[in-house]
Design brief:
Helix content: 25-40%
Bound molecules: inosinic acid, magnesium ion
Distance between the termini: 19 Å
Strand order of the largest sheet: 4-3-2-5-6-7
Oligomer: single chain
CATH class: Alpha Beta
Structural class: alpha/beta
Shape: globular
Order of helices and strands: EHEHEEEHEHEEE
Number of domains: 1
Number of helices: 4
CATH topology: Rossmann fold
Strand content: 25-35%
Length: about 170
């Protein structure tokens, strides 16, 4: 390791790859014979999405979108804005939305509403991490990698002020 973790490691590199393989197996079984379109949310879900699709045993298409939520650095206001939209329509497609982490759940709730208005054949969500607040929002997340306590984490795509995305593990910020 060339540079240190900012805090305690919450999910190791091996733990990530094992869980990603398990999730990919479940998704592959569920989407066999369907028209799977994976939508990754930039930038946090890039690493997870790239690893996940390489473990799938069913074909898929890939698109990305980028959103930003207004508010302070640590507290999302719930007002979400699309800063990069999808390249193509999703009408009639079996869409799987891939997120890095669900915290308050507001980002995901906004995206679900926005995308379901575009008439996909189906719309499900997959999050690598989920925090306790998300459970209170009544969000049905089809696939969840790890449930975390209410800690701020970085690495494997997740940032703190654009830092630490490159870490190959997930670490808590001290
Ligand atoms: P939500 O709308 O509150 O669910 O916020 C989700 C977004 O906040 C994620 O897509 C991340 O960009 C960011 N976020 C929430 N928790 C963390 C964390 O622990 N580390 C890094 N980013 C986080
Ligand atoms: Mg972020």
């Amino acid at each position: 390791m060339t540079h240190g973790a900012p805090g305690e490691i919450v999910v190791t590199r091996e733990g990530l790859s094992e869980r990603v393989r398990e999730m990919a197996a479940e998704i592959s079984a569920d989407y066999a014979g369907r028209d799977l379109l994976i939508i990754g949310i930039l930038k946090g879900a890039v690493f997870f999405t790239a690893d996940l699709v390489r473990e799938l045993t069913v074909p898929c298409a890939l698109d990305f979108m980028s959103v930003s939520s207004y508010g302070s650095a640590t507290q999302s206001s719930g007002v979400v804005r699309i800063t990069k939209d999808l390249d193509g329509p999703i009408e009639g497609r079996d869409v799987l939305l891939v997120e890095d982490v669900i915290d308050s759940g507001r980002t995901l709730r906004y995206l679900m509403r926005n995308l379901s208005a575009r008439d996909p054949a189906s719309l499900e969500t997959c999050a690598l991490l989920s925090k306790p607040a998300a459970d209170r929002l009544d969000l049905r997340t089809r696939y969840v990698g790890f449930r975390l306590p209410d800690v701020f984490v970085v690495g494997y795509g997740l940032d703190a002020g654009e830092r630490y995305r490159e870490l190959p593990y997930i670490s808590a910020l001290p």
